[in-house]
Design a protein that fits this description.
single chain, globular, 108 residues, 6-stranded mixed beta sheet, alpha/beta
Length: 108
């Protein structure tokens, strides 16, 4: 009887944690270069992109913004994308393609 009470208590305690783990918010964006972004084939400048992501995910914390960089690999372009980290207060993962190989970089 005592074990079942402990088990039930543990399940009640862990249930909200499990529910939270399933609600990961990931925003996916394509970077076109020269400060231009795209979401679902609609172009955005930097400020408009930040506003769109904040409006779309109002009341939710965005866990990570995944930016498809394609073959854009210049340091200046990476720095532009990494500004999203501060503007949205979240992690930013860039997915790049170099010589046909896919690479992932996180902004620091």
């Amino acid at each position: 009887m005592r074990c079942s009470v402990i088990l039930m208590s543990a399940m009640l305690f862990l249930a909200p944690i499990a529910a939270t783990a399933d609600s990961t918010v990931i925003a996916e964006v394509t970077y076109l270069g020269n400060g231009a972004y795209q979401i679902k084939n609609k172009p955005y400048g930097y400020d408009a992109l930040v506003a769109k992501l904040q409006a779309t995910h109002a009341g939710e914390h965005i866990d990570v913004v995944v930016v498809n960089m394609g073959t854009v690999t210049s340091e200046l372009e990476k720095q532009r994308v990494c500004q999203l980290r501060q503007s949205l207060q979240t992690r930013v993962k860039m997915e790049l393609t170099v010589d046909g190989d896919k690479h992932e970089l996180f902004c620091t």
